[in-house]
Write a structure and sequence with these properties.
single chain; alpha+beta; 2 strands; 12% strand; GAG-pre-integrase domain-containing protein
């Protein structure tokens, strides 16, 4: 840390690249889960619900969600006065 002069990490340089030595604590558990339709919507580039249903027929007909990014994409911008 430059302001305090305290060493906050270490590493080495090889061929112009710096590699940091970071201790890794491995403590994780994996629980398989089925992605939600909204997660698929985000992963696949924001397709509409009907297109998601075509790809995944098991999505319930009542399924709907509100995506902030999709809502912003539908907005229009006023033109500037010339």
């Amino acid at each position: 840390d430059l302001p305090t002069g305290k060493m906050i990490g270490g590493g080495h340089e090889r061929e112009g690249l710096y590699f940091l030595s970071i201790p890794v604590d491995v403590a994780a558990s994996s629980v398989p889960s089925k992605p939600s339709p909204f997660q698929w919507h985000l992963r696949l580039g924001h397709p509409s619900v009907p297109k998601l249903r075509r790809m995944f027929p098991d999505i319930p007909a009542s399924e709907s969600f509100l995506c902030d990014v999709c809502q912003l994409g539908k907005h229009t911008r006023s033109s500037f006065p010339s």
